[in-house]
Design brief:
With 164 residues, the protein is α/β, with parallel strands linked by helices. The chain is built from five helices and nine strands.
């Protein structure tokens, strides 16, 4: 499976990908639409691109959406998702339904180095910043993603330490 993920790339990065695959610049918008609006999970689903273009893309790239490996639901409908992380450190995302709102708390780091005395995450130590793909995957991979009204940077890590 290719190492480079399209999920989380900027429009400029997608234009570079399109150019490398011999596609016209507008193909970057087509790729973004398939990923973010139509929720493609594989390059083969990008049927708005020619078969040869999809083959060229799939040699170096994958979408990057990976499903949660576990979910634990509470009686109030809150669901804690466990998603494969880098270096054996799993990522947590928590879905919280509340009347007319649907909130997802996402992680921005694996662990945390702040060391707040009240927080178990800080006691686990810092294991690295998550990539844009890792963060966006938390949103795209859950079954409730289309009904989300809020995304909150909370959970593992200190978001302001991972601004890029």
């Amino acid at each position: 499976m290719p190492e480079m993920q399209l999920l989380g790339m900027t429009p400029a990065e997608l234009r570079e990908v399109a150019a490398e695959a011999g596609l016209r610049p507008f193909a970057a918008d087509q790729i973004a639409r398939r990923i973010y609006k139509l929720r493609a999970t594989s390059i083969d689903e990008m049927t708005n691109l020619s078969k040869s273009a999809r083959q060229r893309l799939s040699t170096d790239y994958c979408i990057g959406v990976t499903p949660p490996k576990a979910a634990a639901e509470s009686t109030d409908g809150t669901v804690k998702y466990l998603i494969d992380g880098k270096g054996g450190r799993d990522i947590e995302a928590v879905y919280i339904p509340d009347k007319d709102r649907a909130t997802l708390c996402v992680s921005s780091q694996a662990g945390c180095h702040m060391g707040c005395k009240f927080c178990m995450t800080g006691r686990q130590g810092f294991h690295g910043n998550l990539t844009a793909c890792d963060i966006i995957n938390q949103i795209m991979a859950i079954p409730q993603s289309r009904s989300l009204t809020n995304v909150v940077f909370m959970g593992m890590g200190e978001p302001m330490d991972n601004l890029p």
